[in-house]
C-alpha cells in the first residue's frame, strides 16, 4: 500500500479521533466542566466556539460517547448546518427528533449542529423556539467558528465553551504519533514547519502531513511544496536583494517564485509580511516598520483589482529605493 493510500484514512478517521473526553488534550478547563455534566447525567444547551481544527466537533462526539456509551449514535442527531441550514430542516428533521422521549439513565437526546454560524436567521429563530419547547427531552450542542453570527437569544440559552488553538507541543506530539502508527518517516524540522503553517489547527496540520507523506519522507521542502508556499529562505533572499539595491535580481527571483509555485500576489505578500518580522531577517526595527507599511498599501491595491505583478514590482522598487537611502 502506498503512503497516499495509507494516509487516505488519516484525516480525522475514527481510529485517530479521541473517543472519550479523557483523551482530549489542550482544553483541560473545558474537559473538566464537561466531565461534571457526564457525572450528573445532565447538562444545559451548549455552544462550542473557537477557531477551526481545535477539537470542537470531536469534543461534542466524545461527550456523547461518555454519556451514552458505545451505542451513543442512537441518541445523537448530527447535522452540518452549512449544508442543512434552512428553516425547513429545523421544522422537520430536528423537530421530529427532539419531540420524542428515550428510555435510559440519561433523560435526554442530543442534537449536534455543526457550523451553526452558517444557519439562516429564520432557521435560528425556529431553533430558538425548539430549544425552549423540548428542553426536557433534548439538549442542543451548537458548534461555531464565529459565535457572533449566532443570534443573541440562542447564545443566552447556551453555556458557552471557548476553544483555543492547540499548543505546539500537543500538535507535534500527535503528528509524531500518527507517523509512528502509519510507519511514515518524518523529520522534526518538517513537523515544526507544519505547526507554523497550521497555527494550531489540528485538522489542517494532519491534512498537510497527509499530503507531504504522499511524496515520501516528510521533509521541509515537501511540506512547502504541498501547501503551495515558497520556502521562507527564498522569500528572505528577495527582500535582501531588494534592500541591497539589486532590483533586477530581486524581480527575476520574484517572477521565478510566481511561476514555480503558482503563487498569487496575495500569497507572496503574506509570506513577505511574515518574513519581515522573522528573526532570521537581520534588519533594523524601523526598516521593518516601513516595509510593513509598504506591504499593507500594495495588498490594498491588489485587493482593489490592480495587477499582481506590476504592484509587486513596484513594492520591490520601493524597497530598493529605501535600501539606497539607508546606505
Task: Write up this protein.
- InterPro entries: AAA+_ATPase, ATPase_AAA_core, DNA_pol3_clamp-load_cplx_C, DNA_Rep/Repair_Clamp_Loader, P-loop_NTPase, Rep_factor-C_ssu_arc, Rep_factorC_C, RFC_lid.
- Keywords: ATP-binding, DNA replication, Nucleotide-binding.
- Heteromultimer composed of small subunits (RfcS) and large subunits (RfcL).
- The structure is a single chain.
- The chain is an alpha/beta fold.
- It has three domains: 27-162, P-loop containing nucleotide triphosphate hydrolases (Rossmann fold, 3-Layer(aba) Sandwich); 167-227, Helicase, Ruva Protein, domain 3 (Orthogonal Bundle), CATH 1.10.8.60; 232-326, Zinc Finger, Delta Prime, domain 3, CATH 1.20.272.
- 57% of the residues lie in helices and 9% in strands.
- The protein has 15 helices and five strands.
- The protein has helices spanning 3-7, 28-40, 56-68, 87-99, 121-133, 152-156, 168-182, 188-198, 202-213, 220-227, 232-243, 247-261, 265-276, 285-303, 308-326, and strands spanning 45-49, 76-80, 109-114, 138-144, 158-162.
- Helix 2 (28-40) runs parallel beside helix 3 (56-68), helix 4 packs parallel to helix 5 (121-133) and helix 11 packs antiparallel against helix 12.
- The longest helix is centred in the C-terminal third of the chain and has 19 residues, at 285-303.
TL;DR of this structure?
This protein is 57% helix and 9% strand. It has helices spanning 3-7, 28-40, 56-68, 87-99, 121-133, 152-156, 168-182, 188-198, 202-213, 220-227, 232-243, 247-261, 265-276, 285-303, 308-326; strands at 45-49, 76-80, 109-114, 138-144, 158-162.
Amino acid at each position: 500500500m502506498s503512503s497516499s493510500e495509507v494516509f487516505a484514512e488519516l484525516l480525522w478517521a475514527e481510529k485517530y479521533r479521541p473517543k472519550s473526553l479523557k483523551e482530549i488534550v489542550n482544553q483541560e478547563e473545558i474537559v473538566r466542566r464537561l466531565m461534571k455534566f457526564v457525572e450528573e447525567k445532565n447538562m444545559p444547551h451548549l455552544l462550542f466556539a473557537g477557531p477551526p481544527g481545535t477539537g470542537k466537533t470531536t469534543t461534542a462526539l466524545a461527550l456523547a460517547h461518555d454519556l451514552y456509551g458505545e451505542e451513543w449514535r442512537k441518541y445523537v442527531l448530527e447535522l452540518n448546518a452549512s449544508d442543512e441550514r434552512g428553516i425547513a430542516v429545523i421544522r422537520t428533521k430536528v423537530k421530529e427528533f427532539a419531540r420524542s422521549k428515550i428510555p435510559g439513565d440519561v433523560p435526554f437526546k442530543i442534537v449536534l449542529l455543526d457550523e451553526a454560524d452558517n444557519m439562516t436567521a429564520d432557521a435560528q429563530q425556529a431553533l430558538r423556539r425548539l430549544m425552549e419547547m423540548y428542553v426536557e427531552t433534548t439538549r442542543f450542542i451548537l458548534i461555531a467558528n464565529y459565535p457572533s453570527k449566532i443570534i443573541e437569544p440562542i447564545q443566552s440559552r447556551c453555556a458557552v465553551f471557548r476553544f483555543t488553538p492547540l499548543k505546539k507541543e500537543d500538535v507535534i506530539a500527535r503528528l509524531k504519533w500518527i507517523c509512528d502508527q502509519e510507519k511514515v518517516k518524518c523529520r522534526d524540522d518538517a513537523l515544526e514547519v507544519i505547526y507554523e503553517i497550521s497555527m494550531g489547527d489540528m485538522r489542517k496540520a494532519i491534512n498537510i502531513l497527509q499530503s507531504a507523506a504522499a511524496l515520501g519522507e516528510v521533509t521541509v521542502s515537501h511540506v512547502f511544496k504541498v501547501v503551495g508556499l515558497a520556502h521562507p529562505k527564498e522569500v528572505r533572499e528577495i527582500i535582501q536583494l531588494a534592500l541591497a539595491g539589486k532590483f533586477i535580481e530581486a524581480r527575476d527571483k520574484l517572477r521565478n517564485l510566481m511561476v514555480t509555485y503558482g503563487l498569487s500576489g496575495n500569497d507572496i505578500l503574506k509570506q513577505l509580511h511574515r518574513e519581515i518580522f522573522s528573526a532570521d531577517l537581520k534588519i533594523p526595527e524601523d526598516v521593518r516598520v516601513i516595509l510593513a507599511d509598504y506591504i499593507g498599501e500594495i495588498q490594498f491595491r491588489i485587493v482593489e483589482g490592480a495587477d499582481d505583478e506590476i504592484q509587486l514590482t513596484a513594492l520591490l522598487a520601493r524597497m530598493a529605493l529605501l535600501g539606497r537611502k539607508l546606505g
